[in-house]
Amino acid sequence: MKKIGLIGGMSWESTLMYYELINKKVKAMLGGLHSSNCVLESVDFSEIAELQAEENWKALDALMISRAKSLQNSGAELLVICANTMHLCVDAIEQHTSIPVVHIAKVTADEIKEARLDKVALLGTKFTMEKDFFKNILINAGIDVIVPEEEDRDLIHDIIYNELVRGEVQPASKKTYLRIIEALKGQGAQGVILGCTEIPLLIGQEDTDLPLFNTTKIHAEKAVERALEG
Fold it and tell me: What span, in angstroms and rounded, lies between the C-alpha atoms of 6 and 29?
């Protein structure tokens, strides 16, 4: 089993899910008492969120490169960034380290293609919904991507940063997300990408008849599959 390097803490609530999902997948694949071979670099999310709000991606690149190098020095053979938004730093990381990155958008695109869907809605932070780093990977895979209207994008983003990353799950916020999902369904969405690792704290497949693509679960499980290849 290759050693998986995790950059977590963005937020720690979703990093906790990663650790659980990775170990459950290892157990499912290997059985017995097997658990994951992994190492974690956990950041202070307050610093990350502040730099994101300032759109200071140069500083964020430097921070993520530093953590990736630390994981490489710890013997990590695969890199998992435990957040969708921070995949904006993948290019910088790949330029300064030799660890292959398991890209959350690429493995999600594979799942959507396997489900034979060609138009999906993307929910996440405003960075994920409005920038191209996630959407372009889907588009290049032949998948049409739609996002909510600006007012709803603001609501989704605010709920993530003011509630979910703090571990707060509010029934009213769940209703807001489900209303938005229904609107996107009306625009032709055949499925919905939960493109923020905290959204699964709020929304599950039992809440809607549209197929949900939980990027946290997909990412964690694909990382294990890669770690066990060969």
Answer: 20
The model carries a pTM of: 0.94
Calpha distance 74→60 (Å, rounded)? 21
Spatial separation of the C-alpha atoms in residues 138 and 107, rounded to whole Å: 10
Q: What are phi and psi of 145, to 5 degrees?
A: -120, 130
Tens of pLDDT, residue by residue over 31-43, are 999 999 999 999 9
SS3 string of 164-225? HHHCCCCHHHHHHHHHHHHHHHHCCCCEEEECCCCHHHCCCHHHCCCCEEEHHHHHHHHHHH
CB neighbour list of residue 124: distance below 8 Å, 6 or more residues apart:
84, 85, 134, 156, 160, 193, 194, 195, 196, 199
pLDDT value of position 230? 72
Which domains are delineated in the chain? 4-103+218-227 (3.40.50.1860), 104-214 (3.40.50.1860)
187 Cβ contact partners less than 8 Å away, ≥ 6 residues apart: 121, 146
- Span 91-136, pLDDT tens digits: 999 999 999 999 999 999 999 999 999 999 999 999 999 999 999 9
Mean per-residue pLDDT pooled into runs of 10, the chain (230 residues)? 97 93 97 97 96 96 98 97 96 96 98 97 97 96 97 97 93 97 97 95 96 97 95
